[in-house]
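Students often ask why inverse folding is considered easier than folding. One informal answer: many sequences map to the same fold, so there is more than one right answer. In these notes we will look at a single instance of the problem. The structure comes first.
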């Protein structure tokens, strides 16, 4: 049985849309009532997009259906979906719901433990109980097997009666290749053309262990962004019938014809009909004996190779690709280099499916069995889905890139934005290879010889540092992430290759007009940051990143045999930390001391989104209590770099953030910006001004609440033992994303599936105390009885601690991957000596002793 972390009742299904697909492949989402929605598989977001076939004037959307006959009783035919939401009942021409006229099940519920989803259908008139099991492979440490363009849909039919039931499950998907849900026109060699499905072809095929409908484009040019292939297939060997197209009967007669044909005996007959986006139907009939279950599995696969750059050059030359772009604007997709087409995906997934499912299940089961609060498990797992959304993509060289999030029809805020991606932790601890690829892009490509790291990467990669603007928090955070990823991987070659640019990135702080031009360990200069403005003067948010970066660079310099540089970093850290505690801590929290610039600001530091009057800069934090003023400390704890500021000040500040910024209901809260929480909902606000002195125009987002920042503060609280507060914040976030009001697999900020929300994985690290260094082979945990889940980004497993009369017995099991382990150290200073190379299946058990 699949594990369940979160159960959603029927009243909480309306907004659920669980993305199904691979890392960098795009997705189609499983709706809460079992429908497929948000078809985002053609290289760009397409929120709300439902592809349609048009046969004889009828608009036909994707759906699955069940036909069931028991003995001599009348057959029952139903769409395999739960009831339509009440909000879709009204419309000028009747209901606005997709496929509104199809009879459907009376009730359903939704169970999730991402990437596994189960939809339970029930109806007294249907002689079967039906469960839809949907997933895609997600195997930490194995990016390629987690980057497959597939949605696995398995319908499990259970017969509770004493009489056998003949049943058929039928999938219906239009061939909409050429329509990506975002635009309808493009330029081709200087001429306007209509991008869309024109003359698309469906073909029934049988292959190696699979059969079904292969979908190809018709007249669409092979260079178009939405050109590619799709397939709807099944692993069933018998009972298969199909249609490659429906009739063209008017007045919705094509739907009537299909329903009559399918309802008659559950088998499909081929039809003739004209349609540019023909509907493909694939049916599988099975006998379900009394008291038994049978499963029917479908694979939906796709292959769209023509991803375009997010930084297109002007269309001032003859176009060589659709979309008004120039020849070098096509960057492609990694996943399409691994498969020939969508049929190739289906055949290869079919052969591997048992292993793919088993490895994914082992991961989720191990994580679900860990002694973690369910809300932490829910937040951590559900936000991994962002990696599968159109927020992320991989280019043919294997590098991973990310938008900040997704607008409805396009990516939002390009460039793997450093100051946003600093917060997330899921990638490094689950897919270390991909995290390292982002470090390589940042330092080897996006950082110029002066140390300016373009915080938005341009593509193709030879344009990576073309933006030429540095973000203070982004650049310092990347130095900490370099340390983190080196520790997790033990990849000395990577560190040595990137080290020269890392030193230049830090040294940028010290140039004339730079962030710390006087080299006193305190950032005073023009500091562009994740609030999309520039701060002027010392402030806790940027300073904590700077202090963390100095500590990380000190550690790496010592390892690489550069004691003088390490000493410089230590000196700046020591002085900067002491100054910050002495001058910015107000006894309650850390404030921002606004200082107008004393000289010209170098172009690389000022993006132009902030203050215009630099003599009295507006859009500043000032005396505010900021939600993530200790963000650098959050990262330092995760990296094992120790305290950046006085521990008692850190703890007091987190208590103040909770006391001043947490709102248990927002009825009286004024917000002049975006609303991610409303009414009775609880939230941790971005900033408050409990001591007054609010700037006339503070930084723009101060009245908002955004989940990535909330998680960052919550994780900080968990690290400091303030568990009740930390869990209350996380619970407030997930209560807002409850399936009824918002999609629990789409935490938004500047767009859908916002990258910062993957900071939620940090709660797992904080509660278990997990850290691992492949450099010295030491793994660390909090000393506490129970079972923990651990993952290094390359290997993962469980660690069980059992209290005995002689102390804590520790048993560590490797479930996947391999690692070198010298010892396990608990936070009570007890140690388990290991000194072994461990691989999947290995387990070690010993008593932890104090040295």
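Output (designed amino acids):
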């Amino acid at each position: 049985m699949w594990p369940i972390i979160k159960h959603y009742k029927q009243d909480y299904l309306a907004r659920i849309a669980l993305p199904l697909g691979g890392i960098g492949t795009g997705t189609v989402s499983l709706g809460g009532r079992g429908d497929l929605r948000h078809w985002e598989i053609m290289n760009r977001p397409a929120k709300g997009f439902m592809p349609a076939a048009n046969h004889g004037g009828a608009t036909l959307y994707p759906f699955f259906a069940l036909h069931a006959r028991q003995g001599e009783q009348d057959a029952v035919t139903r769409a395999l979906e739960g009831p339509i939401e009440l909000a879709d009942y009204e419309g000028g021409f009747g209901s606005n719901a997709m496929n509104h006229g199809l009879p459907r099940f009376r009730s359903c519920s939704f169970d999730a433990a991402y990437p596994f989803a189960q939809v339970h259908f029930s109806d007294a008139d249907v002689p079967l109980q039906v469960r839809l099991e949907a997933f895609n492979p997600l195997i930490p440490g194995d990016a390629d097997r987690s980057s497959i363009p597939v949605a696995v849909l398995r319908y499990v039919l259970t017969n509770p009666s004493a009489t056998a039931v003949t049943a058929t499950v039928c999938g219906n998907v239009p061939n909409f290749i050429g329509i990506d849900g975002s635009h309808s026109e493009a330029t081709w060699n200087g001429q306007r053309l209509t991008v869309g499905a024109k003359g698309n072809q469906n073909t029934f095929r049988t292959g190696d262990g699979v059969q079904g409908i292969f979908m190809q484009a018709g007249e669409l040019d092979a260079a178009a962004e939405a050109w590619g292939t799709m397939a709807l297939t099944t692993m069933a060997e018998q009972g298969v019938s199909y249609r490659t197209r429906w009739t063209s009967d008017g007045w919705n007669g094509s739907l009537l014809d299909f329903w009559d044909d399918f309802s008659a005996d559950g088998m499909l007959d081929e039809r003739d009909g004209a349609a540019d986006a023909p509907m493909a139907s694939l049916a599988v009939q099975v006998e379900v004996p009394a008291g038994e279950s049978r499963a029917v599995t479908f694979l939906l696969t796709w292959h769209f190779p023509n991803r375009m750059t997010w930084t297109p050059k002007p269309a001032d030359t003859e176009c060589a690709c659709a979309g008004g772009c120039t020849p070098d604007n096509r960057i492609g997709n990694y996943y399409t280099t691994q498969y020939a087409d969508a049929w190739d995906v289906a055949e290869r997934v079919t052969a591997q499916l048992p292993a793919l499912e088993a490895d994914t299940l082992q991961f989720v089961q191990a994580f679900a069995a860990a002694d973690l609060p369910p809300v932490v498990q829910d937040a951590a797992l559900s936000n991994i889905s962002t990696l599968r959304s159109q927020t992320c993509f991989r280019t043919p060289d294997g590098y991973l890139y990310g938008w900040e999030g997704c607008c409805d029809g396009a990516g939002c805020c390009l460039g793997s934005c450093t100051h946003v991606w600093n917060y997330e932790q899921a990638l490094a601890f689950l897919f270390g290879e991909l995290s390292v690829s982002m470090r390589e892009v940042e330092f080897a490509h996006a950082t110029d010889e002066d140390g300016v790291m373009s915080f938005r990467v341009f593509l193709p990669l030879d344009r990576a540092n073309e933006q030429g603007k540095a973000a203070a928090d982004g650049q310092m955070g990347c130095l900490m992430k370099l340390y983190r990823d080196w520790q997790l991987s033990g990849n000395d070659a990577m560190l040595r290759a990137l080290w020269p640019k890392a030193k230049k990135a830090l040294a940028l702080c010290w140039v004339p007009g730079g962030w710390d031009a006087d080299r006193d360990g305190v950032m005073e200069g023009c500091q562009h940051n994740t609030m999309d403005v520039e701060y002027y003067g010392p402030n806790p948010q940027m300073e904590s990143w700077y202090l963390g970066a100095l500590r990380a660079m000190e550690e790496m310099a010592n390892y690489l045999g550069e004691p003088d540089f390490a000493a410089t970093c230590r000196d700046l850290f020591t002085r900067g930390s002491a100054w910050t505690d002495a001058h910015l801590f107000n006894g309650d929290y850390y404030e921002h001391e606004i200082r107008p610039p004393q000289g010209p600001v170098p172009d690389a530091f000022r993006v132009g989104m902030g203050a215009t009057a630099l003599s009295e800069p507006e859009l500043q934090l000032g005396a505010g209590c900021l939600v993530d003023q200790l963000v650098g400390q959050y990262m330092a704890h995760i990296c094992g770099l120790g305290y950046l500021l006085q521990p008692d000040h850190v703890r007091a500040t987190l208590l103040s953030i909770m006391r001043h910024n947490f709102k248990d209901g927002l009825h009286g809260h004024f917000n002049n910006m975006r609303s991610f929480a409303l009414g009775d909902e609880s939230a941790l606000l971005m900033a408050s001004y409990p001591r007054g002195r609010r700037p006339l125009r503070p930084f723009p987002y101060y009245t908002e609440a955004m989940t990535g920042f909330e998680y960052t503060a919550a994780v900080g609280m968990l690290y400091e033992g303030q568990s009740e507060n930390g869990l209350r914040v996380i619970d407030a976030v997930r209560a807002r994303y409850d399936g009824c009001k918002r999609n629990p697999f789409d935490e938004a900020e500047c767009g859908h599936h916002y990258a910062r929300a993957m900071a939620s994985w940090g709660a797992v690290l904080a509660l278990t105390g997990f850290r691992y260094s492949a450099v010295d082979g030491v793994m660390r945990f909090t000393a506490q009885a129970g079972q923990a889940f651990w993952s290094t980004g390359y290997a993962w497993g469980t660690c069980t601690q059992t209290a005995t009369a002689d102390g804590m017995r520790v048993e560590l099991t490797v479930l996947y991957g391999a690692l070198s382990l010298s010892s396990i150290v608990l936070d009570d200073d007890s140690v388990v000596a290991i000194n072994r190379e461990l691989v999947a299946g290995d387990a070690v058990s010993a008593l932890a002793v104090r040295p």
